[in-house]
């Protein structure tokens, strides 16, 4: 695959697995048969006539962020869903603290009300301060980073699961589990 084809396939796969594009048969964990994806993509884009199942597997297995998971002849997105799923994620060995980027304006509201999913079905938390800063920098030049006390979150009844290498998901983060953290505190 050339760079254009790789980019196009990645965007198409995200549309299918995160947002339900082409309305393919998806189980409650978000898995879709790879052959169904290949057929749907080829049927909707003649320029991708070359697509085979091994291309999907290669994309999933080489993705640096761990955005996809292969299980047998099926694949799923590990995070970023806008469609409702009941993902079963590993809740063992969750770090004591995770991080969430926001804007200065939003930080005041979030500290009062907690973090709720907005454009996605789950709250996405980052493994490190730097990961959260990079994620937040997509929206704003200098994001405010909130630290999430994961033990307090679990005690409040909101489990956190590991979705990918540096991404964790939670249905909600209550305000009592949050505080603003500054980079100098981490040194």
Q: How would you explain this protein's 3D organization?
A:
- This protein is an alpha+beta fold.
- It folds into two domains: 3-77, Orthogonal Bundle (Arc Repressor Mutant, subunit A), CATH 1.10.10; 97-186, ADP-ribosylation fold (Alpha-Beta Barrel), CATH 3.20.170.
- It has six helices and nine strands; from the N terminus they run αβααβββαβαβαβββ.
- The chain has helices at 3-19, 34-44, 53-62, 104-113, 129-136, 150-155, and strands spanning 32-33, 68-71, 74-77, 97-102, 123-126, 144-149, 160-162, 167-170, 178-181.
- Strands 1-3-2 form a three-stranded antiparallel sheet.
- It starts with a helix and ends in a 6-residue tail after the last strand.
Residue-averaged pLDDT: 93
What's the CATH class of the largest domain, please?
Answer: Alpha Beta
What is the alpha-carbon Rg in Å? 18 Å
Q: Looking at CATH, which topology of the largest domain would you report?
A: ADP-ribosylation fold
Q: Which residue ranges are poorly predicted, with pLDDT under 50 across at least 5 consecutive positions?
A: none
The helix fraction, in percent, is: 25-40%
Question: Which architecture of the largest domain per CATH?
Answer: Alpha-Beta Barrel
Compute the separation of the termini in Å.
42 Å
Count structural domains.
2
Instruction: List how many beta strands DSSP finds.
Output: 9
Largest sheet, spatial ordering of strands: 1-3-2
Instruction: Choose one word for the global shape.
Output: elongated
Residues in β-strands, percent? 15-25%
* Tally of contiguous helical segments: 6
- Structural class by SSE content: alpha+beta
**Major sheet:** 3 strands, antiparallel
List the secondary-structure elements in sequence, H or E: HEHHEEEHEHEHEEE
